[in-house]
Specification:
β1 and β2 form a beta hairpin. By secondary structure, the protein is an alpha+beta fold. It has 2 helices and 6 strands; from the N terminus they run ααββββββ. The chain folds into 2 domains: 61 residues, no CATH class; 30 residues, no CATH class. The chain has a two-stranded antiparallel sheet with strand order 1-2. Strands 3-4 form a two-stranded antiparallel ribbon.
């Protein structure tokens, strides 16, 4: 089979387009397996006139990857408005506790 599309893709930008598409496809496969959501790989070819007898070919490859889930974490505010993962104890100084209407020192 003689394919103009495959020839153009393979030669475009010295083969960098195909290498980029390969890398993006691997990312798509990895993330679909990891997150169980769909991905999309798009290769666009734009053909424009370039003078009277020639053509200009632009190519673009892009991927839409699954959204990676973001976890939640719990923190406590300190007196200096920093965050700590260590839960406060009643006798600890410098930690704030939540009260109706705002924050107050323990």
């Amino acid at each position: 089979m003689n394919s103009s599309v495959l020839m153009a893709l393979g030669r475009h930008d010295g083969g960098a387009l195909v290498e980029n598409a390969d890398d993006l496809l691997r990312q798509c496969v990895r993330d679909v397996v990891r997150y169980g959501e769909k991905a999309k790989l798009t290769i666009s070819l734009i053909v424009e006139p370039n003078g009277e007898k020639a053509l200009k070919l632009k190519a673009e490859v892009k991927a839409t990857l699954p959204k990676r889930p973001q976890g939640e974490a719990f923190y406590w505010p300190t007196e200096d408005c920093d965050l700590t993962r260590t839960p406060p104890r009643d006798e600890d100084e410098g930690l704030m506790r939540s009260i109706p209407g705002g924050m107050a020192k323990s």
